[in-house]
Amino acid sequence: MSTPKRDSYEKTEDQVRRKTSARSMHSSSRQSATSNTGVLMVGPNFRVGKKIGCGNFGELRLEGIPQVYYFGPCGKYNALVLELLGPSLEDLFDLCERKFSLKTVLMIAVQLEYIDPETHKHIPYREHKSLTGTARYMSINTHLGKEQSRRDDLEALGHMFMYFLRGSLPWQGLKAETLKERYQKIGDTKRATPIEVLCENFPEELATYLRYVRRLDFFETPDYDYLRKLFTDLMEKMNYECDWQFDWVGRQVSTPVSVAPDQVVSPNREPGVPGRDRHPSQPRQSPK
């Protein structure tokens, strides 16, 4: 999922009524202009706004699949205009004082599967690849330079679940002289951290999930029903109702790029079947 570093822009023309963000993808030789008011502009129609969020390899924290409104030339720039979605999970994590309840993590976890309805294809296996992804969550095989597949996405999700439950991961905050050395240390620490230690003081189902996905072959189709059942059975055992009442529901959250603050509201519908029905206030997992 490696992407170039991109800033977010807000289109100011009146005819664009929907909330959108535009990202400039101009080359390093093209410079943005600064107006008399000190606002950084890209062409006459775009101004630099607040960045939506970024990972180690670029803007990776879009919470779902945005609609693309336009991609093409805009004067001397190339512009990509996307639908502006709501806050990222990291934003909501901050809003909840950097801890999610087990119930919230389980309701996120039951939304695991994304299938490309057109291609149904997966990338070929390769080794000696450069790292792509966010080092905090990426799979152990990714650290080893192996091509990523569905197993790696699921392992990264498992690391994310534990991050949300614990508040941090054992391989965070490692010091190193270079970025390459830091990634090496992160990978070494992941391999050296037993799953039982990573998931200590949390239900066994989380450790079972990680053991399962780490044993998958590159081409193997994950048993999504089995994984989802791990979490739905745990919810039942804990007497949780899958009502999509996430920890952030009802809390005040600021949306990015000059959009007025909004409040996360409770879904006004009957609870759906876990993993099949998603209310707009739920986060959407970004596919590979």
UniProtKB/TrEMBL annotation:
Region called Disordered, residue ranges: 1-36, 260-288
Biased composition (Basic and acidic residues): 1-17
Low complexity compositional bias, start-end: 22-35
Stored Gene3D superfamilies: Transferase(Phosphotransferase) domain 1 (1.10.510.10)
Source taxon at top rank: Eukaryota
Identification of the protein by name: Protein kinase domain-containing protein
Biological source species: Pomacea canaliculata (Golden apple snail)
